[in-house]
Amino acid sequence: MEDLKKRKLADAAGNGELSSEEQLRSLLDPLAKPQLVDLLAKLGFQYPSIAEEIKSVASADPVHRKLFVRGLAWNTTSETLCAAFRVHGEIEEGAVIHDKVTGKSRGYGFITYKHMDSTHSALKAPSKLIDGRLAVCNLACEGLSGSNSTPDLPQRKLYVGGLSPEVTSEMLLNFFGRHGEIEEGSVAYDKDTNESRGFGFVTYKTVEATKKAIDDPQKNLGGRTVIVKLADSHKGRAAQTQLPTATMVPMNMPMSSGYPQPGKPHTATAPVGYNYPPTVASYTDSSYPSPPTAPAPYPTQPQMPYAPITLKNNSLGHPPMAHVGMGGYPYYMGKQ
After folding, report:
1. Going along 105-251, which residue ranges are E strands?
2. pLDDT value for 68
3. Phi first, then psi: what are they for 220, rounded to 5°?
4. Distance CA 92, CA 113 (A)
5. In this structure, how many other beta carbons lie within 10 angstroms of the beta carbon of residue 82?
6. pLDDT at residue number 195
7. pLDDT value, residue 134
8. Which one-letter DSSP state was computed for residue 330?
9. What are the per-10-residue average pLDDT scores of the chain (336 residues)?
10. Cβ atoms of 76 and 131 closer than 8 Å
């Protein structure tokens, strides 16, 4: 039934029969997307006018024509970037992105083609050697990572350490290209001096090529034996060995306005809800009464004389001692 509808639509277009837009929509509405794509592709191949209309509609949105290019050398210019991608078609806009403060390249750029088919042609060969570095492109709408978002990337990306300063990105790619097709790779260069930092990265298109590069015993490049291992494992070790140190950051504690702060002049503004300086109520004119006088001391009494007491000898033969109390007064005892 669906094939019959497509044949009727193709015959109507071929014979020049006129149909209203509503009738055509009623025929196209039940068709699925793959069927519509197949139908338009056949019509575009048979009729150049339909093909041009399809290209015009598809290229109307620049999102489908804009490429993000990463991995550029620090000395790559916008002219060099456009020259490398002009082989795929007419370029509407292309530029390398530079830092606004330093004016140096940030290592990536954008290319916008005039037609979407040129964009598809460039994506068929996403890796390009520009100024000695292998740059990679992807649709800008896919984000800055592009193909790096694939789940098997940690098994395809290699870290290459111990490189000689004379080793260039081209030498690195030629050395590791014997194990398989390389998707992305470059020597790491210093952003300021543009000198080699002694290591680089190589990303293969297959996991098998990555394993071959690791297992290869011949790892002599530029007169040195280089270190080859998965980049993910190297990044994990670097994260363990370089722990960030905690720093003490001085902070100014907020204080209410109107009170003096150390090191700052005192402002005359008073705190909200308070008067500064505070008002003090005045004293009343009434005088307070005189404090009470201390009571007079008790009168002194004269010492009372006592009659002398005669002492008797006790049975032991010792003369009895007079009992003396406190203050020299005699101590009286009861009768025994």
Report:
1. 105-113, 127-130, 133-139, 157-161, 182-189, 196-204, 220-221, 224-225, 227-230
2. 94
3. -100, 115
4. 5
5. 16
6. 86
7. 84
8. B
9. 56 56 86 89 88 84 90 90 93 93 90 92 88 87 63 88 90 90 86 86 91 90 90 61 50 54 55 57 58 61 64 55 55 54
10. yes
pTM: 0.53
Q: What is the DSSP string of 74-115?
A: TT--HHHHHHHHGGGS-EEEEEEEE-TTT--EEEEEEEEESS
Sequence letter at residue 129 = L
Residue 184 near residue 210 (C-beta atoms within 8 A): no
Other CB atoms within 10 Å distance of the CB of residue 27: 15
Structure tokens at 283: 């004293």
CA distance 189 to 165: 10
Q: How far apart are CA 158 and CA 156, in angstroms?
A: 7
Residue 141 has a pLDDT of: 87
Q: What is the dihedral of CA 150, 151, 152, 154, to 10 degrees?
A: 100
Amino acid present at 312: K
Helix (H) or strand (E) holding 120: helix 116-123
Cα 130 from Cα 79, distance rounded (Å): 11
